[in-house]
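Records of this kind hold a single protein each, on a pair of labelled lines. With that in mind, the following record should read easily:
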Amino acid sequence: MKDTDLYSRILGLSAPWFVADVELDTAGGRVDVHVDHAAGVRWRCPTCGRELACRDHAEPRVWRHLDTCQFKTFLHARVPRVECPEHGVLQVKVPWAEAKGRFTMLMERLIIDVLRECATVSGTCQLMRISWDEAWNVMDRAVRRGQARKKSTPARYLGIDEKAFRKGHDYMTVVCDLLGGTVEFVAQDRKTESLGDYYRQFTAQQLERIRAVAMDMWEPYFKATIKHVPDAAHKIVHDRFHIMQHVGQAVDKVRRQEHRELLRQEDERLKDTKYIWLYREENLPDKHRPTLEALEATNLKVAKAWAMKESLAGLWNYLSVGWAKRFLKRWLTWVRKSDLPPMCKVGEMLSWPLDNILTFCRHRITNGAAEGLNSKIMAIKRRACGYRNREHFKTAIYFFCGGLDLYPRQA
């Protein structure tokens, strides 16, 4: 079999395209495949599909293809241009690559696969023997391709959380599909308008599709959702894990304050007990149980605060909003009368969004999926040793966490 026939079959070329010549450069470690087309062919306009005669040819172009053994392989071709009465002069589509791409579709698919497995651009560059710019360009094209193919409808259950871009209270807003476990939207900061940009992509009818939105108690997120989502007051669910985190932090403040008071009296009972008070009772390791039981028997303030935390955990077992509301109001009264400033402060914080804490009884969703995606995003950032460019960080998030259809397709 001739080398031209071999590469025609490998590339899957069919009329009017054929391999005209193959050059092997052993010193340079490359194979150059020259592709041509038959004369007198009528070509389709890439926009409307109308068949037209060849007007002229664009400048010769080169695409990187899958390696031939240890040799880099390059395709060379002059792409015909047609003059469409409606759309003007345009290059026709070639069957081996997408428009404006540097690689053949098979090579681009392989680079995407290697990027997903390596999870770093630099590692992909070493394996594929390409430059950083070439690898990043493939990632960026894949994300734009995937977003263009994605259905323009919001997920039924959304999770909204913040993600630190860098130190110094520099945050990004991440919207995710709680059921699909994918990132749907990334905004520049965590303002009301940031989240509003996500909702404004959809019509009022599409926004009615949203059944529930899980979020922490960050007010700008609440305001944006109330403004854009129909009947949002009954759909917003303040995340129970964030609520319990705030209560746990209040318990720790009570412990620290009391520990300082006891140390003045040369009492070290609370020394090295920080993490004991942060455990749920059923999750407490057996080795810590004797210590906790001994401290519970005393009249310590932190023991009282810990009991409040454990009691609040029972709220999430209620299925009836009415009974849950009675429970939460009794708990808030207990906290207000406790004379423990950190607990009183967290009680005040939970008083104003009372109804949107209780919506958990109806929707039973949490931001757990969003937190899982946050961990994945952190891993992406860590492997890249951080991102200086915010847009590059967003592209990487969409590439690895967006659940997008990234691969090029033959026209």
The chain has a mean pLDDT of 92. The chain has 16 helices and 14 strands. Residues 269 and 294 are 10 Å apart (CA to CA). Residues 3-146 form one domain.
